[in-house]
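Ticket #265: bound-state structure for guanosine-5'-diphosphate.
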Amino acid sequence: MSRESAPAWAGQALVIVPTYNERENIVRLVTELRALPGEVHVLVVDDNSTDGTGALVDEMAQNDAGVFVLHRPGKLGLGTAYKAGFGFGLAREYAYLCTMDADFSHSPSSLPALLDLAAADADLAVGSRYVPGGKVVGWPRLRKLISHSANWAAHVFLGVVTHDCTAGFRCYRRHVLETIDLDGIFSTGYSFLIEMAFLCQRAGFRIAETPITFVNRTQGASKISKIEIYKAFYTLLRLRTRALPWERMIGLWRRRADRKLPAGK
Ligand SMILES: Nc1nc2c(ncn2[C@@H]2O[C@H](COP(=O)(O)OP(=O)(O)O)[C@@H](O)[C@H]2O)c(=O)[nH]1
Ligand SMILES: [Mg+2]
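RESOLUTION: The complex was predicted; output attached.
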């Protein structure tokens, strides 16, 4: 698409950027996003970063009506940060709700292509490392192995067809987030991404991937922990067991118990 004319998504896109201690990255990232064509708005969801990230964005928001900050009281997890961001975007008129990391692993210059894809052809567009043309630069071998294993397991155990279902560079059309039961999502951290990919596929939404080059951060530190990696595999297990009969029996039993409660309880 020519960048001369206004893109189809112009004035309708919000990018949600969860942050925890991203002081070295956040000002440049927000500045670059705001300089993109199509008047993309930016929402930073900051979990009371101890390095002052939240205050830096407050200052930017005071001078730019297209920049917003949600302050949360402490580190509550990547998944719940996305959810808070979706709530913010859905309460306003945005038609496209994107997510990306603050550390430049996702390049702002790739965002228009992601939005183009969502506007043209997809309910959920994913910036993917694992389709032809996609790349990972600067990750240690172990990190690559963990990421590939999570995607392989999601494919084998859950039948997820998205090649990069742990990617945080995404664009959801508004109706996707209005349809999916966001309150029913149990993952609070990184595995939220796997759960959302699974739920979007199960709901029958069109998911498309566009290749990106993911570059490991050069500033600040990664927040992923061993616990998050274990949780991702627990998420796979938990989503898998949804298909088992005893999960349905528990659901039935819960519904019956709810019916027995007197009104108002
Ligand atoms: N608000 C919020 N942001 C988080 C949290 N954990 C990670 N992030 C942000 O999520 C993005 C991805 O995290 P990162 O540490 O780069 O993960 P990695 O690239 O997988 O190593 C970054 O923008 C982080 O600042 C959290 O608990 N709360
Ligand atoms: Mg990162």
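RESOLUTION NOTES: The pocket of guanosine-5'-diphosphate (ligand 1) is lined by residues 18-20, 22, 45-47, 75-78, 81, 101-103, 105, 217, 222-224 (CB under 6 Å).
TICKET STATUS: resolved
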